[in-house]
Design brief:
Layout: H1 2-17, E1 21-23, E2 30-33, E3 39-40, E4 62-67, E5 70-73, H2 78-83, E6 93-95, E7 98-102, E8 110-114, E9 148-151, E10 156-163, E11 177-181, E12 190-195, E13 201-208, E14 217-225, E15 240-249, E16 266-271, E17 280-283, E18 288-289, E19 295-304, E20 308-318, E21 321-329, E22 336-342, E23 351-358, E24 364-373, E25 378-380, E26 384-387, E27 394-397, E28 406-411, E29 419-426, E30 431-438, E31 444-448, E32 457-465, E33 468-476
Parallel strand pairs: 1-13
Antiparallel strand pairs: 2-3, 2-4, 4-5, 6-17, 7-10, 8-9, 8-14, 10-16, 10-18, 11-15, 11-17, 12-13, 12-16, 14-15, 19-20, 20-23, 21-22, 21-24, 24-25, 24-26, 27-28, 28-31, 29-30, 29-32, 32-33
Length: 477
């Protein structure tokens, strides 16, 4: 009896530090995206027999999803759902920001992109996509692009920011959290949790075997090797078909109550190493996202000289921003802080920052910004790659915003480049204009014409000068 009592005490102690893991199976059975304008997956079944034979091969944003008997919109394009006569519950979903990805990137981790995301059919992008994982988990409209993501996310913890969960959302029948699965998961369990400011579990964990979720459709993707820099694409992972699955759950499944709801600060995925994320989204009627750094970075690049690198970055607006730490690497893998620049704090006016790093390192130089917020949260920019040659190209857009044509000034190349390739695309990766200029001169103004019919909005201009890439954000009036 005494041993039994001790065992019960030990069990109670263990449970206090190891909250229960509920087994929850809330598989989405159908999705609607904007692939080709409108794509409906069909009903997910074993063997994928009832799903759409058309397989998305580019960016496509989630418009709606079905769970149980109801279809829930994401508010990405409700007008399209109305046009197609879809009956749905009006709701809005947005991707949660990535606070951190804990785990070692090995040869198993891939960046997944629709195989025509780069407008290159059945082959690698030139230059290859940036190797930073976080941006691929929150891009597209409302951050809900199913055509980009990370396959085999490193085993460990992935934290997303969220707070201000509303008591009225608990057990209201509307899904509060969506987790995506866009490749071939292993059979191991993933564990989902809400955490407080001290990383203590709120309520209980939820355990999911994503392999058991229904397949709602297949897509065609390229899977880039994320552990190499630049990322590489091999034949076995080119133009490759993979299934799509989604899980949707209510806060109530996590043991969230009126007593603990105010303590939520994070949503954590404990990843087994075989899970494949496009995004994690939340219902905006149920909570507010915790933005890790509300800074709109519009440009980050620079010039490499023989004994130094000059870096420049621009922001469109900043809210409670603290500083930018400049990090440097000779390999593109291991970064160290080489400087700090104080941020503007709170402003809606465009800001321009500069930093000079003294280095005589030959070859490629890799830089990134560690953007710090006043509340201690942070995020990283994409990696900028500079060449150490004195003739590093500088590219500017003028005027910006542009109208019927876009002019790009290329200067500082040292000698006339053999060619300059320009690609204009939407934020979702759809290429709307491209052109190659042969031997344009040492300093030249390149003009993209015939752009008057483009919808107004934000675009990315990717300019490749003899292999050196500059990406500018430009605005169409």
């Amino acid at each position: 009896m005494k041993k039994a009592i001790l065992s019960l005490v030990a069990l109670a102690s263990w449970l206090a530090y190891h909250p229960a893991q509920a087994q929850v199976a809330n598989g989405v059975t159908e999705i609607i995206t904007d692939f080709g304008g409108f794509w409906r997956s069909g009903s997910g079944t074993t063997g994928n027999a009832a799903t759409n034979a058309l397989k998305p091969d580019n960016s496509h944003n989630l418009l709606a999803f079905k769970i149980g008997a109801n279809i829930f919109s994401t508010r990405v394009n409700n007008a399209k759902l109305d046009e197609k006569g879809i009956l749905y519950v009006k709701s809005e979903y947005q991707a949660l920001p990535v606070l951190s990805i804990e785990g070692t990137i090995g040869s198993n981790t891939k960046v997944a992109l629709g195989q025509l995301y780069d407008n290159v059919n059945n082959g690698p992008s030139v230059p290859p996509p940036a190797g930073n994982l976080s941006p691929y988990l929150r891009d597209g409209l409302n951050g809900l692009d199913l055509g980009t993501g990370v396959a085999n996310v490193p085993a460990g913890k992935v934290d997303f920011g969220i707070n201000s969960v509303k008591i009225t959302s608990l057990n209201d029948g509307n899904p509060d959290i969506i987790v995506t699965q866009i490749a071939s998961p292993g059979g191991a369990q993933d564990v989902y949790q809400f955490l407080d400011a001290n990383d203590q579990i709120i309520g209980n964990s939820v355990s999911i075997n994503v392999s058991n979720l229904p397949v709602v459709g297949n897509w065609i993707a390229d899977f880039y090797e994320a552990s190499s820099n630049p990322m590489t694409l091999t034949s076995g992972f080119t133009n490759s078909e993979r299934p799509i699955r989604l899980w949707a759950g209510d806060f109530g499944a996590f043991g969230i109550t009126g007593a603990n709801v105010a303590s939520i600060r994070k949503f954590r995925l404990n990843i087994n190493g075989n899970s494949d994320l496009a995004f994690v989204a939340y219902n905006t009627d149920a909570a507010e996202l915790r933005n890790p750094l509300p800074v709109t970075l519009t440009f980050f690049g620079g010039q490499g000289k023989a004994t130094y690198s000059d870096l420049t970055w621009n922001t469109a607006q900043e809210v409670n921003s603290a500083a930018f730490e400049v990090e440097y690497s000779t390999t593109g893998r291991d970064f160290a802080v080489v400087g700090r620049v104080e941020a503007a704090g709170n402003t809606v006016a465009a800001q321009r920052y500069t930093f000079r790093h003294n280095t005589s390192q030959a070859g490629a130089r890799y830089y990134r910004l560690h953007q710090l917020d006043l509340d201690g949260t942070s995020t990283y920019s994409a990696v900028a790659t500079l060449a150490s040659a004195a003739g590093t190209a500088r590219v500017t857009a003028a005027p910006n915003p542009f109208g019927g044509s876009l002019k790009l000034l290329v200067s500082g190349t040292g000698e006339a480049p053999a060619s300059v390739r320009v690609q204009l695309s939407t934020l979702t990766g759809r290429v709307v204009h491209q052109r190659t200029f042969e031997r344009p001169g040492q300093s030249a103004t390149l003009e993209l014409t015939g752009l008057a019919a483009l919808p107004a909005g934000l675009y990315l201009a990717r300019v490749v000068v003899d292999g050196q890439t500059t990406v500018l954000k430009v605005v169409k009036e």
